[in-house]
Amino acid sequence: GVTYSARTEDTSGNDVFEEEELRGHVVAKGLWNMNDKWRSGLNIEWASDDQYTRQYDFDELGFSNDDVLENEIYAERFSGRNYAVARILAFQDIRVGESREDQPEVLPEIIASFKGEPGAVPLIKGSWNVDTSFLGLQREGSQQDMNRFSLSGGWSRRLVSDYGLLTNVQANVRGDVYNTRDKNAITANLGQNDSSSETRFFSNAHIQSSYPMAKQFETMQATIEPVVSLTVAPNIRTNNDIPNEDSQDVQIDTSNLFEPNRFPGLDRIEDQSRVTYGLRTGLYGYGGSYGDIFVGQSYRLDEDNNPFPSGSGLDTQDSDIVGQITGNYEGKYSLNYRFQLDNEDMSPQRHEVDAFANWRKLQLSTRYLFAKAVDGTGITGSREQIQGTAAYYVADDWRVHTGATQDLGEDSGLRKAYVGLDYYGQCVSFALTAQRNYTDDSSGDSDTEILFRIGLKNIGEFVSSGLRPDTTTE
Predict the structure, then answer these.
(1) Which DSSP string do the residues of 146-202 spell out, in sequence order?
(2) Are 358 and 332 a contacting pair, CB within 8 Å?
(3) pTM score, whole prediction
(4) Residue 143 — pLDDT band, cuts 50, 70, 90?
(5) Share of the chain above pLDDT 90, in %
(6) Phi/psi at 186 (nearest 5 deg)?
(7) Strands, DSSP E only, in 162-301?
(8) Cβ contacts of 268 within 8 Å, gap of 6 or more
(9) What's the DSSP call for residue 469?
(10) Whether the Cβ atoms of residue 350 and residue 372 lie closer than 8 Å to each other
């Protein structure tokens, strides 16, 4: 794509108008199925400037939904339960102002994962796994570069007692080797060499048990399931010479509460022993309707040397309390509410709500987020935002829809509002949308847009079908 247009640039925090110039983008995708085990490909994304994709809404058309464009060349191998990939990556950060980061090039990343068949381990049964990886990060100039080699192995087994107790047992061991050059000032002490090589060895054992109980009723089933786990791990020495490239954005939630290591990535390890516990209960109708609740928390056996950043919910001996409430009634109403509460005073740390209602012709949805800052993520303040949408079918093929996004944080205000008309035919579909974005001019988002999209069935469509299930025909 190519255009000749003006834009507003962010220069030292000020909006500066740039005259019309040649601008554009390139997107390329390729895939080669080499044989039944190997495939290779490439994904290319490039934009001429930071505002381009947002100004012309290429993110909504599938160009990129991220603030960082990714370019990749890769080769993959699939064989039974084993997998391997080698790739090189380069990134283009299109965030504006102070949010932009110096993205490293990945030269290369190699990952190989091997998994044994269930019950294949002699004597103790269970299954084994071996994972190995190599990562090379290269930045321009004198910025930090890193090479990392990691090798890990594990064993796991699932046990079911005669009384219904479900137990999963894991044992893991891992070794890492790091070589770091041009270390960041944060990790380099005064007078210390700016290059270093470090090794690390770590092992842990993880046992998780649950006791699900159910009661049958005429129209539904009620369940209650207490869950508890014990993770046994040594106390490892904090080594500031090991950089943190992929374990920065850490936060407790229901999806990682019972994981042996709650850090994402490999650069940081959750050491020391802990107990994790939770309770899940719910009602499940035989017609598909359901509602369930989960609440859980973890407790570190040693209150010292906590490796987690402030705001993560894991930085104290008692973790924050996390939970989730989900429900669906006859496919018409749905709710997914996730929360994080401070372990001392129960004050809210994070709330996320997704709700949907469908009355055949009228559909309503809303999304709400409240989240406090987490150290090390670049987000220094709390965020609070609500989004609402509504759609009404004036006929089987015609729909009008509207929506808005409101920022409720410190710099509150309306961020986006739109209204549209859609037609979904058997062979042709089109959508007409008017949208207003209220953001800084330099973001590329601040503008009023009139968008017209057309799709030809089985040839090319910019929007997926929005026909209601009860109106579709063979």
Answers:
(1) EEEEEEEEEEEEEEE-TT--EEEEEEEEEEEEEEEES--TTTPPTT--S-EEEEEEE
(2) yes
(3) 0.84
(4) confident
(5) 64
(6) -65, -35
(7) 166-181, 196-210, 213-216, 220-232, 274-285, 290-300
(8) 244, 247, 250, 307
(9) G
(10) yes
